[in-house]
């Protein structure tokens, strides 16, 4: 259940109420409620519409609450304060189970269902950097469109130069019909181009403290100096294929793919060879693949720990004494009566499981929509940025709190994270090693 779906429900309630408020398009601002209030989302839309609806704000908010409580995915909706509507969403454990069960098909949608699309250009045999970028883009678009329900074919030699062209079937010059069949009442579909994708230039940059040397090799290039074979504007020179081969050897083909897909196709892309050559967070492909490996390991460790018999937790001499999950009191430190010292975990503050996992769960649930949008907009960078956000959010909750070690919920969340990362990277044609 998203804020957009909650808004749609509120609009239906207003339409049933009638009056002046029913004629107004509602665009409520959903906010995270204060901790003492609780809940997941809160809005003051009832305060704004009370006069037009002819009802006091608390009464109108109560009608909204009753309507939202009946929705699947809403655990509770109530009136707080002078007329705020506060919603608590149902715990989406069922969605996590579904992600794990669906596997790679979790990112498959019907965004382009019924369309037949031919991707022209992007031949795998390339002579320079732009042609390599076009090939990377063409393969990712092929996979994204197919996952969105389209029937996709490739014509690697169909476009001129390194740019791409997408052609689909259009009937009567107006409606896309992927499965149209010629008949007296339905003319044969006519192939028309629906998109021309221009591929921007690429620059390979060495980050080095060495001063530039006249007539030197790429190893002697200085800070911000393009590698030979690609000039300052990004156009391939005589050694374009040699520069491409050298870059692939230094940073790896997958890092090169991810780095090029991070930038919209029409824009120029810069590849920092030194920064992307190591197994560090600076390497865009390693960051995602490493997050996937951590998620797989997290799931395995959680399951193995769950099989072990539980034993008493003994405090370390001079260390913190645990009085419950997420709460501790340190010996030798005065604590006021009735107060406890909250453990600061990996997220930077004490938080419940729902608060800690909420952002990650939201990203996992939203991944199919983003994949479909990336296909519709011919923009693989949208999915790549989403996967990067998943990796960042998983790192914020990994390792998870000690009180959850060995829980099935922890294992399932890690498995779902691994599924989304692996499926997304596969759509972008990035190889994900299978952890041992």
Automatic annotation (TrEMBL):
Signal sequence residues: none
Region (Disordered): 308-340
Gene3D superfamilies noted in UniProt: Arginyl tRNA synthetase N-terminal domain, Isoleucyl-tRNA Synthetase, Domain 1
Superkingdom of source: Bacteria
Keyword Flavoprotein on entry: no
The encoding gene: argS
GO cellular component terms, semicolon-separated: cytoplasm
Stated name of the protein: Arginyl-tRNA synthetase
């Amino acid at each position: 259940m998203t804020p957009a779906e909650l808004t749609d429900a509120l609009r239906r309630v207003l339409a049933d109420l009638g009056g002046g408020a029913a004629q107004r398009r509602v665009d409520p601002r959903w906010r995270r409620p204060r901790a003492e209030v609780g809940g997941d989302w809160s809005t003051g839309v009832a305060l704004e519409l009370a006069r037009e609806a002819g009802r006091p704000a608390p009464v109108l908010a109560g009608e909204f609450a009753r309507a939202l409580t009946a929705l699947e995915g809403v655990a509770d909706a109530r009136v707080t304060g002078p007329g705020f509507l506060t919603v608590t969403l149902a715990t989406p454990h069922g969605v996590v189970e579904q992600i794990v069960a669906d596997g790679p098909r979790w990112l498959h949608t019907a965004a382009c269902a019924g369309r037949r699309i031919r991707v022209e250009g992007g031949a795998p045999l390339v002579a320079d950097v732009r042609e390599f970028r076009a090939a990377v883009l063409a393969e990712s678009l092929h996979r994204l469109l197919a996952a969105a329900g389209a029937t996709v074919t490739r014509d690697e030699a169909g476009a001129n130069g390194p740019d791409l062209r997408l052609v689909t079937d259009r009937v009567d010059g107006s409606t896309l019909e992927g499965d149209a069949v010629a008949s007296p009442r339905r003319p044969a579909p006519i192939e028309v181009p629906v998109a021309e994708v221009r591929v921007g230039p690429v620059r390979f940059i060495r980050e080095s403290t060495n001063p530039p040397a006249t007539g030197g090799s790429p190893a002697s290039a200085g800070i911000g100096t393009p590698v030979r074979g690609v000039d300052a504007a990004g156009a391939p020179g005589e050694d374009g294929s040699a520069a491409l081969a050298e870059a692939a050897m230094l940073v790896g083909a997958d890092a090169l793919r991810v780095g090029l897909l991070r930038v919209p196709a029409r824009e120029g892309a810069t590849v920092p060879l030194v920064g992307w050559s190591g197994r560090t967070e600076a390497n865009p492909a390693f960051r995602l693949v490493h997050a996937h490996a951590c998620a797989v390991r997290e799931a395995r460790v959680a399951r193995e720990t769950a099989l072990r018999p539980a034993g008493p937790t003994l405090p370390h001499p001079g260390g913190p004494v645990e009085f419950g999950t997420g709460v501790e009191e340190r010996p030798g430190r005065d604590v006021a009566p009735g107060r406890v010292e909250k453990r600061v975990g990996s997220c930077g503050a004490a938080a419940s499981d729902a608060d800690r996992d909420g952002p990650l769960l939201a990203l996992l649930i939203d991944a199919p929509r983003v994949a479909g949008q990336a296909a519709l907009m011919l923009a693989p960078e949208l999915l790549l940025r989403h996967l990067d956000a998943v990796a960042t959010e998983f790192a914020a909750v990994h390792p998870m709190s000690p009180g959850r070690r060995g829980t099935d919920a922890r294992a399932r969340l890690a498995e779902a994270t691994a599924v989304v990362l692996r499926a997304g990277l596969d759509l972008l044609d990035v190889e994900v090693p299978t952890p041992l």
